[in-house]
Amino acid sequence: MSIRSLLLQSLTILSVASCSSGSKNAVPPESLPMEEISLDNTDAFTATDHHWRIAGNVYADRQQPHHMEIAAGKGILVCDLSGNTADSTELRTKLVHGDLDLELDFMLSADAAASILFQGKYALQLKDSWLKDSVTNTDCGAIEGRPPVLNACKAPGLWQHLSVRYKALRPSKPDSNGVYSASESGFASVELNGRAVSRLQVSNTHDTTLRDVPGPLRFIVHKGPVAFRNIRYKTYGNDRAKLADMRYRVYKGVYKNHDTLQQLTPVKSGSTDSLTFHTGDKRAHLLVEGKLRVPVTGQYIFRLQAGGPARLMIDGNEIANNGGTRDYQRAFYGDTTLEKGEHTFQLSYANYDESLVLLYEGPHIPFTALTTPASERMAEISPQMEYPVRNAPAVQRGFIEHRGKVNPYCIAVGMPGGLNYAYDMVNYSPLMAWHGRYLDIAEMWHERGEKQLEKPLGAALELAGTPSIAELQAPDAPWPDSIREDSSSYTNRGYKLLPDGLPVYLYTLHQWSVEDYLHPRSDRKGLIREVTVTNNGSTNGNAWWLMASGGIIEKLPDGSYAIDDKQYYIETDLSPQIVQSKGQYRLLVPLPADSKKVNIQYSIIW
Length: 606
Fold this sequence. Notes:
Largest sheet: 8 strands, antiparallel
Radius of gyration: 27 Å
CATH topology of the largest domain: Beta-galactosidase, Chain A, domain 5
Structural class: mainly beta
Number of domains: 3
Distance between the termini: 21 Å
């Protein structure tokens, strides 16, 4: 089955200027697009051996070492070492790089091991480390002989996401006095399945063994079949924009409407060689104007963060505006196309909270600050406060972030053995599940606990979080995406704790009474969801139970189901229906109107 593209959801951002070439109401991008290595064929790589091929779909039985079935098509790069005695095999990109951002998806067969070498020599490990309690310098996410800080690895046969920010290793050069300057290089960040797992910064002094020589990405498979897809990247050079001829004016008072300054007389003015709020005064309005010298023609994105109203103008056009907020941690974006050369700029800032940060990204230029480091007010970092799970389950109510939004109606459950999940107490549905440590609850207590956030300490598998039961005229009819807290359709809502300390969630939809119980599998590889649905009356139509939803759902040869384009597995003895509706898939169990009681049991494995 071919991989279908997911619909992109737009996020509305308050009062942000659009790009100069688009609609005034368009939402500007937050980053320039990445380039992608085509996997229609192997033309993007140097000569390949017979182990490497292009495929359209793959299936790896997680319980069978070195197993992967390959279907014809395009879009997936596969290395098949199954049944082969070769020590390893590698593939090199024709792309050579220095500084690089890399994102890709990879799939490991059971017991597989591989590595990606940056600049052709600095290694990041990929390995089937699923469910290992402790990890070493050979496990998934390890870099240059250093183990990852946590195990974020998924089960074999699932797609895993890797994101790397890499700064080319290079020697420093001495200045006129023979002093070597330090430059931070190496793996700035490595994220596996959404969690930071590794970081290796090398402060280079006079190490002449390091060379700023571009090199290829080397994909090396050591054992077992491994697959890759969606290989995207950005490469960076040394060009940077520069500010020049800057003059400032300071006005008494602070103004949300920046054009008000045209009617006022500044209390002081002058020239400056740096862009910072320190040029002005507290509770005063600062206006800085000057030249922005752009090194190359192309699209530029600007990110503005400020503790008070701020606006960026370039060549007389508004590029970014924070709408007057004092939330200095919130970023506002704007983009425009700029020709190589000089452009006028104006930055207006009402200084409430002494924080003004302006960054930009351009063609082969990473996000770089135009303001000085001293112009940023650093937020106080909450100390980690771990809620440990010892010999009995832990249950914690609080807020949790799910798919970019804070859900305030959650209960998080941690179980001995390192299985955890979060549950939505309005939609009555699991939000996420994760292996490993339980929660960081510092933001429920630090600074009076204003954020109330509880944060999973493992790599969380985000589930749909939509209601699990609905009455539909047909299985492909629209499914409700949420339930209002005050909805009268759901009644008798709550939960009870069993003797084992785990909750059973109770609620009624019309005449359907539900008992919902999640607990660990005996092998600790996932969660079992046991549901009892009782029909207390009669109805004109049928109801349906939603096991899972998302992107592509496939029934696999081993009888399990791969959910949301192989993000996790569902195992069940039932025969659910795979239903497609408006580009999304559902795994449904019918609840016939003449049924008095339906028992549903299935495992969630990731």
